[in-house]
Specification:
The chain is α/β, with parallel strands linked by helices. It is built from 9 helices and 14 strands. It has a 6-stranded mixed sheet, sandwiched between helices. α2 crosses α3 and α2 packs parallel to α4. The longest helix is centred in the middle third of the chain and has 16 residues.
């Protein structure tokens, strides 16, 4: 079922069109990637979805109805620019923000106890925000974003300031929130994270969407018929196009390219005829490769 629809949204500033006919659809209980280089229009779109600013034309719908400022209570937004008050104590601040989101003090305290214990940051309750590291402050703001259990979560570069261990923890938390019923829009420059988390994406470049769809299908559509083969011996097939080959501990790893008209089974039969095949895998381009290729092609 569709949760969020953006239809033909246009936003014009003086001398600059930030969004030019942008449309996308986000299904319930999915992680949707919003990608693009700096200045592409992602932040403008996020601000429109959050009713911070309004489109000049077009429409944003939540659950099939045109969004109003009242709907913002159903959204949790973690912006790239963090907004915690440095002189306030952590506990006071998160309680205050939770009540702004409509939670009672009692409900907020119970939910905060759960999250602070989960992230093992109970000792920071009475510390001032200015005493927190960047990563710790990020955890606190993540908690304030998800605490009121909104239907739609929007994360803008949520892993900024995290080391690899904490990044992995936060990835698992995002997937767990999805599994519990949340729908997530995920804006990032990290394409590896997109492959880990996102089912579908829109790539925005120069105010327009230039690539959109399912991540697996996009990668498959950009395939170059390149394969990596593990074998017991070197591959010497005369009409097999070899790109590279290396040997380690008696195992040969060969990268090769097949003719687009040739089936995978036909190629595999050729390989079996000339060596003992241990592994056979198509090399699909990464989302990072596709991102760079698409943006470069679209830029003049």
């Amino acid at each position: 079922m569709t949760l969020l629809e953006v239809e033909n949204v246009v936003k014009q500033y003086v001398g600059h069109r930030a969004l030019d006919g942008v449309s996308l659809t986000v299904e319930e209980n999915t992680v949707y990637g919003l990608l693009g280089p700096n200045g592409a229009g992602k932040t403008t779109l996020i601000r429109i979805i959050n009713c911070i600013t309004a489109p000049d034309s077009g429409e944003v719908r939540l659950n099939g109805k045109r969004m109003t400022p009242a709907d913002v209570q159903q959204i949790g937004y973690l912006p790239e620019e963090r907004g915690l008050y440095k002189k306030m104590k952590v506990g006071e601040q998160v309680l205050y923000l939770a009540q702004l989101r409509g939670m009672t003090k009692s409900d907020a305290q119970k939910a905060l106890k759960y999250w602070f214990e989960k992230f093992e940051i109970e000792a920071w309750w009475n510390k001032k925000v200015e005493e927190l590291s960047k990563g710790m402050a990020q955890k606190v703001q993540f908690i304030t974003t998800v605490l009121h259990q909104p239907k739609l979560l929007i994360f803008d570069e949520p892993f900024s300031g995290f080391d690899p261990v904490n990044t992995d923890i936060m990835k698992r938390e995002i997937l767990e929130l999805r599994d519990k019923g949340a729908t997530i829009i995920f804006s990032t420059h990290n394409m590896e994270t997109v492959e880990d988390l996102c089912e579908n994406i829109s790539l925005v470049n120069q105010s327009r969407i230039v690539l959109q769809g399912n991540v697996s299908e996009i990668r498959a559509s950009h395939a170059t018929n390149t394969f990596v083969v593990g074998s017991r011996s070197a591959i010497n097939g005369g009409d097999i196009k070899l790109i590279s080959e290396k040997e380690k501990n008696g195992i040969f790893e060969t990268i090769l390219q097949k003719d687009p008209s040739e089936t995978n089974n036909a190629l595999l039969k050729k390989l079996i005829d000339c060596t003992e095949v241990l592994s056979f895998e198509e090399l699909l381009p990464s989302m990072n490769d596709i991102f760079i290729k698409t943006v470069t092609e679209k830029n003049p």
